[in-house]
Structure formats: structure tokens, C-alpha cells
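Render Glutathionylspermidine synthase pre-ATP-grasp-like domain-containing protein in 3D.
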Amino acid sequence: MRRVLITERPDWRTTAEALGFCFHTIEGEPYWDERAYYAFTLQQIEDELEQPTNELHAMCMDMLVRVINSEQLLSRLGIPDTFYDLIANSWRAGHRHLYGRMDLSYSGLEPAKLLELNYDTPTSIYESAAFQWGWLEECMALGWLPAWADQFNSIEDRLRDLFASLQIQAPFYFASLQGMEEDKATTDYLAGIAAQVGIDSRYIALEDIGLRGGRFVDLQQWPVTQLFKLHPWEFIFEEPFGHAIAASGTRFYEPAWKAILSNKGILPLLWEQYPHHPNLLECYLDSEPARAVPKGWVRKPFFSREGANVSLCTEKGTALAQPGPYGYGPHVLQKLAPLPCFDGNYTLIGSWVIGDKAAGIGIREDDSLITKDSSRFVPHIILD
């Protein structure tokens, strides 16, 4: 694994905006950053990223069943007891899921370590699946990359096959909150993939979904029977419409059982079940979240995203913290696996799971050990 400098394509911003990728720059700083790429060997991809991702996913699914069958474990995850049945029934009824992303610390020198699961509302899938593939093809056509270069990226093909397998005949609604540009881009991308296999895909703002006679409806009062919602289950559990879900007749994507896996409280449970697994980090429920983070550990809220409210302390005693809106509720303490640093850039790998199989990676860089929503997205290739 190495970081390689490369020339930017001169017109990539115009290309991005024409494709709807309009958040390529955030507050004047690059979000998509093609001034460098990461190169992997095929062995690193297959044995050290793809295979561990599949194994970790299988472990997570086994743990999911344990939690569903235990009110004590559901309580440990801070899930309201009024939603235990909704979660369990969504699993036992076989409600399908689409995708998830594992965040890994990996340097190419040691086993990848699972930092957390983004299994309910992961974003950056468009950048991972489509835009970095287009970058690879164009750079090879320009002669900037070898003709034999490849990429760990079957995300779009697997999504297409997955949507086709759902055999959905009713309109499929894709929803996000108004004003959230990245979320809207994610829903648009997924809706576009669904449309490619003949699904009637429709976007609706979450705020525009109504409730009539116990059923969710669109602005024309048509029933919403299939809904992809880029909105966390833990928020839904606290919202008035949450209690209408069980009897609504709507099939949700991601399903309610994803509330278990997207909760960072799953990390101590995984460590308890699989202690010293080479791809797991020591992790416990934090019984004293008000104290300073111990050296060599990271504190994370059960419910947080994109580095918000994460704090850490290095082995040398350097403390870092990221503010955010998720400081409430229980926290975990996880052993610090410092992100590898390449030329001053701390690198995190997002490993995508489509359905139940590893399908590709996206890489984020930051000047800090904490990866944030503004951290740069950098493409990758495979060279063997």
C-alpha cells in the first residue's frame, strides 16, 4: 500500500457537476481529491481487505441474531423497548438489506482493524462506486496509469443485481432530509441504479411523507409501500411517526434490524464474543464517560457519525476531540488503532458490503487522526 502523486484531470470539476456530484468541494477545500491515489497489490486487496470484510460481516450477522433474541442485549444497546418487536419482526420476516460500510484502519503492514460499522445510513457510495471508477478509466485512457491497473470496485454491479433480485413491482421511494446535498446525491444514485433494472424509482423528501389511515403516503396521497430512507433508526425511534411503522405496511430499507449493527454498542459485544480476533479492537462500555480518555484509547458515543463527538488520546498523551451533536447517551471505549500516515495524511479505508458480500473500498484522508465529514476522498488502484 502506497500513496502516489498524480496530475489532476483538468476538467474533472465540470464532469463532476454534470453528473450531479456537486459537493466535490466543501467550504473551498477539496472533498474529492485526485492529486494522489493509493496503490495496493492484489494480495492486499483479496487477503487483507476483502476476506476480512466478509468474515467480519458474517460475525456481525451472527451477533445480530444473538441480540435480537435477548432483551438484555437490546437494552445494553440503548434501544427503546417499545421497538424490540419491530426490530425482531423485521429480521424474522426476512426483510432484505442493501448495503453497509465498515471503517477500517489498515496500513498494508498489519491486519486491518474494524473501527466501526456504518450499516444504516452510510454515504460516499457514489464516490466509491461511480466517480472513482470514472477517474480510473480516464486516467488509463490518458496514459497516466498502466493499462493493467484495476480497482476493487464491483459496488455498482452488485447493487444492480441486488435491486433486480428484490423483484419490486410497486413504486420504490427514496427519501432524505431537505437541504442535505450529500444525502440527496446518495438517494439519487441508488434510485438511478434501481431504475436501471426496471423499478419505478421516485424521490421524496422525508418531510413530505404523510400518514393517512395508519399508512405512509406521498404528496398525492399514494401509499408508500417501499421506502429507502437515509435517516437513522435511532432518530426515527424518537419521532412521532416511529410508532406508526409497525402497522403501516411499508417495507423499509434499511430494515429496522440494521439499528442493531449501526449502533457502536455492538463493538463491545463483538469483542466479548470474539476476543483477540485479529481484525477486532479491544472495546468496552465506557462506565465513566466524564473522565479524560486514557492513553491509547478512543471514546465514541453509541450514536454518532463522521467523527462527531469522538475523542482520543494517543500513547504519548496527545488528546484530540471532535465536537458534534451526539454527545448524549452511552459511550464505548475502544483501543486506539492509529490511522496510518502517508505524507502527513491520515488514511481511513471504508470497505463496502453490498447485500452480504464485500464489494469495494473508498478511502478518506485527513490532517487529523479523526476522520470527519469534510475529510478528503482519494481514489485507489490495484497494481500487481
